TrEMBL record:
Keywords: Flavoprotein, FMN, Oxidoreductase. InterPro entries: Flavoprotein-like_sf (IPR029039), FMN_Rdtase-like_dom (IPR005025), NAD(P)H-dep_FMN_reductase (IPR051814). This is NAD(P)H-dependent oxidoreductase. It comes from the Bacteria. The keyword Flavoprotein applies. Residues 21-163 form the NADPH-dependent FMN reductase-like domain.
Length: 206
């Protein structure tokens, strides 16, 4: 009797979800900073919802090739790389502290060098820190109009934390954590679609 060889079925193919390329543009001159303390919580929460790859641009550490540039052609290759990373992100997180009622000049200078149409329809998540809750107005009255100029898709949720929400640069206030969790849940379908090259609508509700 001839033995029949058993054919082993092929192993199932494991499909890995594509990672969302997140670029943080950090407008704080301090290291460490409350601004990045807030952003770190946002990134940690987002990482629990979908795969992400994160890179960071610290505008105050880009050097003379950035601060001395008037036009895009003036920047050094490393600054050009930072600009291109921001322009090619799946999600841009624009984060800044509030100084004298608005974002710092170096933060604005970075976006002065970004191509005018590079952020069109790109999801941009806004984050800011300030001395008190009244500084939260910077999100709607300064930062959102800046990205409206670029025709960016600034997501409806934005995150703010005041000095009293931190111990040093560590965010402690559970209410801010809760706002971040709820806010990201409302937009995660949109962000996931960006990672896969598809389209999605924003969830409504809290």
């Amino acid at each position: 009797m001839t033995a029949v060889a058993r054919v082993r079925p092929p192993d199932p193919v494991t499909r890995t979800a594509p990672s969302l390329r997140v670029v943080v543009v950090n407008g704080s001159p301090s290291e460490p900073s409350k601004t990045m303390g807030l952003v770190d919580v946002v990134l940690g929460t987002l990482k629990g919802m979908l795969p992400i790859e994160v890179s960071r641009v610290d505008v105050y550490r880009l050097g003379a090739g950035f601060t001395g540039a008037i036009e895009r052609d003036d920047v050094t290759p490393d600054v050009e790389d930072s600009l291109r990373r921001a322009e090619n992100a799946d999600l841009l997180i624009a984060a800044a502290p509030v100084f004298r009622g608005t974002y710092p000049g170096m933060f604005k200078h970075f976006f002065d060098l970004v191509d005018q149409y590079a952020l069109a329809n790109k999801p941009v998540l806004l984050a800011a820190t300030g001395g008190g809750d009244h500084h939260a107005l910077v999100l709607e009255h300064a930062m959102r109009p800046l990205f409206a100029f670029f025709q960016a898709l600034t997501v409806p949720v934005a995150f703010f934390a005041s000095a009293g929400d931190f111990d040093g640069t560590t965010l402690l206030n559970p209410r801010v954590y809760g706002r971040i969790e709820v806010g990201l849940t409302d937009v995660v379908d949109l962000l996931r679609a960006r990672a896969t090259g598809g389209e999605a609508t924003l969830r409504t509700g809290g």
